[in-house]
Design a protein that fits this description.
Elements (H helix, E strand, L loop, with lengths): L2 H8 L4 E2 L14 H13 L4 E7 L8 H10 L4 E9 L5 H10 L6 E5 L25 H16 L6 E2 L16 H14 L3 E5 L14 H10 L3 E4 L12 H11 L3 E6 L2 E6 L1
Parallel strand pairs: 1-2, 2-3, 3-4, 4-5, 5-6, 6-7
Antiparallel strand pairs: 8-9
The structure holds zinc ion (ZN) (2 copies).
The site of one zinc ion has 4 residues, from loops.
């Protein structure tokens, strides 16, 4: 086998830092809930996963159970995490919970799911598309990236999730989306935060990786580092489309991924 063939084989991403064991309701963490996720990770060749349920379901998270599952599965690194979003109703409580449990958490994802409507995530498919109807798409993009910037400046997150989620339904601004995102990218860099490469965009109407190639290129130029993620809401979705992601990372020249332990970042080569 040639060296290039070997490096191709070795370049598959091995970490998934965006997962939802609870799905979309409070489900108390138990070994029965978490073990299938570890089994699925192992079966897919993933050796490092972060549990990042939505902050509104924090009542289900049990750090002792996570420790127990870690002890029973020493071959898979399991990071305790959460996805903190800008929920205008429940967000304050989520932020307090993250602050109170900061030392137990390895990794906090920051997300923007809400625009003007406090009662509906704009990324709900298909209903969320109504929030774009008749609106100026450039203004919506600006507003969205401003909110992402606020999340990045909160001091409560390690990494930004699905950085250009605003494209989910396929709306494109007239001006260049990368330019609209630049200020926020610089803020992320100045804060030393990461952004994720999320395959979830490939299963949404936009059918594109989060973020776009253009934004990834600018992020690389700024020196921003990346995690790899599927945003799995079922253990079957762990590492979804990672072969496609591997190809994309090869094309874009990304050869290492960010891992987090106790909010400390470590870079690991593919
Ligand atoms: Zn999200
Ligand atoms: Zn998520």
């Amino acid at each position: 086998m040639s060296l290039s063939q070997l490096s191709t084989l070795n370049s598959q991403p091995f970490s998934d830092y965006h997962t939802h064991p609870q799905g979309h309701r409070v489900q108390r963490y138990t070994r029965e809930l978490l073990q299938p996720w570890v089994d699925s990770a192992r079966a897919k060749g993933l050796s490092d996963i972060a549990l990042t349920d939505h902050d509104r379901y924090h009542a289900g998270i049990d750090f002792d159970v996570i420790d127990r599952v870690r002890e029973e599965n020493p071959d898979v690194r399991i990071r305790a995490g959460i996805e903190l979003d800008n929920d205008p109703v429940r967000g304050a409580e989520g932020r307090r919970w993250v602050e109170g449990n900061w030392s137990k958490l390895d990794f906090v994802l920051g997300s923007v799911h809400f625009l003007d409507r406090p009662d509906q995530m704009f990324d709900s498919v298909p209903e969320g598309v109504d929030q774009f109807a008749g609106r100026n798409i450039d203004r919506i993009y600006e507003d969205y990236f401003k909110r992402v910037g606020e999340m990045a400046a909160s001091g409560l997150v390690d990494c930004l999730a699905h950085f250009d989620l605003i494209k989910i339904h396929g709306h494109r601004p007239k001006s260049d989306a990368t330019s609209l995102a630049m200020e926020t990218l610089r803020l992320i860099k100045s804060r030393g935060l990461g952004i994720e490469l999320s395959t979830a965009g490939w299963r949404k109407p936009v059918n594109e990786l989060y973020p776009s190639d253009g934004i990834i290129g600018r992020a690389i130029a700024e020196g921003i580092l990346f995690t790899t993620a599927s945003d799995a809401h079922s253990h079957a979705q762990l590492g979804e489309n990672y072969d496609r992601l591997a190809e994309k990372m090869r094309q874009l020249g990304i050869r290492e991924v960010a891992l987090y332990e106790q909010h400390k970042r470590e870079m690991r080569s593919l």
